[in-house]
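call fold(seq) -> tokens
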Amino acid sequence: MPMPAAEPGALRALLWDVDGTLAETERDGHRIAFNLAFERLGLGWRWDEARYVELLAVTGGRERLLHDMAGRSDAPALAGERLALAAELHRLKNGFYAERVRAGAVALRPGVVGLMAQCADQGVRMAIATTTSRTNVEALLRAQLGSRWASGFDAVVCGEDTARKKPDPEVYLAVLDRLGLPALQTLAIEDSPGGAAAARAAGVPVVVTRSHCFADAIFDEVLAIGPGLHRRGGWRPVLPGPAGDPDAPVDLALLRAWHALHDARGFFPSNDTETLPWP
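ret:
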């Protein structure tokens, strides 16, 4: 039996970023794993939190390594040697990352599982839109959601599936193509300026759930921004009406209300004081 046609602006699918959005992978997993890889190869390199946050402006693990090497006097002098070293370090890092995930050192952020369950119950489709590697996505979601994790997503697009990384919109365009949905019937959940820019460039409305590494980042043209899906308190814009419990999690009803603002007002910069009427 064919499904009824959806309203032009109806929310049909939630598009999840992974690193920083589903879990604090950068803080709890990747940075530590990079340092373990440096140690394994006998390199005296170490990325502290401040340096790693700087490097997150460069998307992609190999790219991040090569960017860092460009400023090191003790890095290989030849481009080919740098590429080989970056590839080996990245391979080792992914192995250490997977070990940390399996050990339970990296968990899904509070509120994520509950929102995913609501999507399943209410017929809102879900997809993964990330330019991290498939092995990293598999390690995290298998550990947190079980061996059948992929059955909950109608599309999973990872770094191996795209030629260009975020902030290029390619990953979001690929997800939209696989879902067969127009951009305005979807909503992206992101944590980084680059990820939000990628979604916006594909025409996808964006909600930002701040992560540890981008706690103070500036975002433009997003529908809403807040500290996490675990509570409504601290999110902007504030939608008046029945305020509800500020400690209650962000749910699909609230996401739909923010999503509807696109039809009513277009995209707008996040604002810490703005209060908007219910659409």
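The chain is about 40% helix and 10% strand.
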